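Please fill in the sequence for the structure shown.

STRUCTURE ENCODING:
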């Protein structure tokens, strides 16, 4: 046994084939190309099938990881994907965007001495295999219960709730503010990381199951939560995300050519600027681009700007590399594509030309002082270090918060001081009877899998309510 473990520790992990950096930096096709069948089976061989699988402790939705990997090893990909579906309805999405390095793979026993099993790559492989080769069978549905549920928002948390409740026989309608469903999966995460077709096929699956989708419905404006309850919905789930952009609040921020990352990525993704010239979406196509911030959203914005034709893209961040919040893989991909990093640099104002367009940004050099409330060392300006960086497009990616449109128009919902909805951590119940909430609108911007986990928890609670009462 020990010999086998040692052998598996030494077997290298199957590398994910990728588009070459110099090619992909100018196209929107997906960067990783996916495992072949042989690669997947070989990678699955590396799993030790641990009796107490540490990997599962790292999975927020407790997928039976060794069990699905065993099916791959045996070449039964349908069984593998079915095993994942028991806990996760969106494996093609999660296999691509989950931070596996801090979740399942971060706990995998093989990672202690060597490289962890490529759990995310395997998850992606079986989900893609099923999409391409599966029979498209629908899972069995319970008899209709006659109960109606309104799901507000079609991001990962709303889609999870809809999928769970439709299978339990309830009548589900999803209300989405945008003209397309998918939430951040579609309007935020770019095509080169998560092809939209994958998200649409998951939504299509829900529609085939019988979920109704009403796009262009802004709850809080087109219809209120109370009206939904009065109209006969027995329960409402609020999964509206946290899409209100934060700004730097420095002079010149209203100049033309300055976007929030939210607006920039929405124009590029949802309004299809990435399909130019087929779609001539209005968007500033900067040649000399600055992106402010160093999280995943900043990396997505910088890499999008490069693909939209920039000559130079610089990420400006006020702390050092160590504190950059983005996933290491995203930073690495961005660097490979030629994105430059201006660290320990903070903007103080934007400078415009005579037409009101941004032409430069004034900055200060920073150094790191004592740790702040977040535990990260606080950046402190270096005296007399003022300098300017030229730019014709700036994208501000310094966080996002709760949009008050729905919450302000709904009586009886308790909010936190930042405007997020207060929900029971065990059930997702809000302080308003018949109303649940989950995902980013409760936690602040987090991850896809956490939003899905919150959706799963709430759907269990909603089902109990519809069956036995509040
Ligand atoms: P959302 O995905 O935000 O969906 C909310 C939906 O509600 C939207 O479609 C919105 O239009 C709709 N809505 C809002 N208000 C209303 C209303 N009043 N009426 C009707 N509909 C409404 N996480 C990862 O795990 N991995 C990543 O790689 C990753 N990358 C990211 C990249 C970007 C650019 C961004 C912005 C986020 C990223 N995240 C990532 C975070 C992740 O996408 C979110 O945590 C997750 O999408 C939250 O899901 P949600 O269902 O709560 O909300
Ligand atoms: Fe396989 Fe790693 Fe999980 Fe063990 S911890 S079962 S080796 S994936």
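FILLED IN BY: designer on duty
SEQUENCE:
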């Amino acid at each position: 046994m020990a010999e086998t473990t040692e052998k598996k520790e030494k077997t290298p992990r199957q590398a994910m084939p990728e588009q070459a950096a110099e090619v992909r930096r100018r196209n929107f096709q997906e960067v990783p190309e996916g495992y072949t069948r042989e690669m997947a089976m070989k990678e699955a061989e590396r799993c030790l099938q641990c009796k107490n699988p540490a990997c599962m402790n790292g999975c927020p939705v407790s997928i039976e990881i060794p069990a699905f990997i065993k099916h791959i090893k045996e070449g039964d990909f349908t069984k593998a994907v079915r095993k994942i579906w028991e806990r996760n309805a969106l494996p093609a999405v999660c296999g691509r965007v989950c931070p596996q390095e801090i979740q399942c793979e971060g706990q995998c026993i093989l990672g202690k001495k060597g490289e962890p099993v490529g759990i995310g790559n395997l998850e992606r492989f079986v989900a893609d295999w099923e999409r391409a080769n599966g029979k498209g069978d629908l899972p069995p549905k319970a008899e209709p219960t006659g109960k109606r549920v309104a799901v507000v928002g079609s991001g990962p948390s709303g889609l999870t709730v809809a999928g769970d409740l439709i299978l339990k026989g309830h009548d589900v309608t999803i209300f989405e503010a945008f003209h397309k469903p998918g939430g951040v999966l579609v309007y935020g995460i770019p095509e080169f990381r998560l092809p939209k077709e994958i998200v649409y096929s998951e939504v299509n699956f829900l529609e085939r199951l019988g979920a109704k989708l009403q796009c262009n419905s802004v709850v809080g404006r087109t219809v209120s939560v109370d009206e939904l309850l009065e109209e006969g919905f027995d329960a409402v789930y609020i999964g509206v995300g946290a899409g209100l952009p934060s700004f730097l609040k420095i002079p010149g921020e209203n100049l033309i050519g300055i976007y929030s990352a939210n607006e920039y990525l929405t124009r590029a993704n949802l309004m299809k600027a990435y399909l130019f010239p087929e779609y001539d979406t209005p968007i500033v196509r900067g040649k000399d681009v600055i992106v402010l911030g160093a999280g995943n959203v900043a990396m997505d914005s910088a890499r999008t700007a490069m693909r939209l034709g920039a000559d130079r893209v610089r990420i400006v961040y006020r702390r050092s590399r160590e504190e950059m919040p983005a996933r290491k893989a995203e930073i690495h991909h961005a660097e490979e594509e030629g994105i430059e990093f201006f660290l320990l640099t903070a903007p103080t104002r934007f400078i415009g030309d005579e037409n009101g367009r941004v032409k430069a940004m004034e900055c200060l050099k920073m150094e790191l002082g004592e740790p702040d409330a977040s535990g990260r060392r606080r950046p402190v300006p270096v005296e007399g270090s003022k300098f300017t960086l030229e730019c014709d497009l700036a994208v501000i990616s310094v966080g996002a918060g709760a949009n008050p449109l729905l919450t302000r128009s709904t009586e009886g919902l308790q909010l936190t001081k930042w405007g997020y909805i207060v929900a029971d951590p065990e059930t997702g119940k809000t302080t308003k009877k018949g109303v649940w909430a989950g995902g980013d609108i409760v936690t602040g911007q987090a991850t896809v899998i956490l939003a899905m986990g919150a959706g799963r928890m709430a759907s269990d609670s909603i089902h109990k309510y519809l069956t036995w009462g509040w």
